[in-house]
Amino acid sequence: MGVGPLTDPVDQIFTEGINEVIVTTYNNAAPMGIIRKNDSLSMIVFRTSHTAQNIIRNGWIVAHISHDPILFVKTAFEDLSEESFIQELIGNRIIHRLRGIQNWICCNAHIEHTTPDKLFVRLEPIHVNITQVLPIPVHRGLNNIIEATVHATRFILNEDPELARFIRHHGELVLRCGGEQDKRAMRLLYEYVNTAVPGTFL
Hints:
Pfam families: DUF447_C, DUF447_N. InterPro entries: DUF447_C, DUF447_N, Split_barrel_FMN-bd, UCP018747. Residues 19-131, 139-191 form the DUF447 domain. The structure is a single chain. Helices cover 37% and strands 33% of the residues. By secondary structure, it is α+β, with helices and mostly antiparallel strands. The longest helix is centred in the last third of the chain and has 19 residues, at 140-158.
């Protein structure tokens, strides 16, 4: 299954703009934004990340469609155990995907160009595993968890107080709009940030 123009079912999964998913590479998982633009899929990956190193070495990723707020937070800040992954033969290579997530898309990952800080990666879907599920409405709790997680990963690097303010703002919205799982995820995020930058959230 190729890209450009995208074909069903990939065409029904990724919409124009940034689509937040959990990406696995070799024994690694991290939240990532997959960009759909002009009927192509791509990612921008920081070179210092495990994801970038694995793409350079192996040339594939698996994008998982998940609505689990705790999984988004955990994969942003810690390494999952080896037991969290399933190895599967796709074509002529062994890929690693997350156990317990039924909706996933395996892609070849082609590095288009690089900068000192980033890889610009074009994605070519080669295998799709999608179940028949009921449509899920937009959920403000999960959306704010994702935004807070993005800000938190950047805050840990530069300790910009403006990012801390954004995290608090999204945390307040999670308390107002989220369910218990979202609130647990937000508390976990605060713990990760306080471990890295003590005293940020009291």
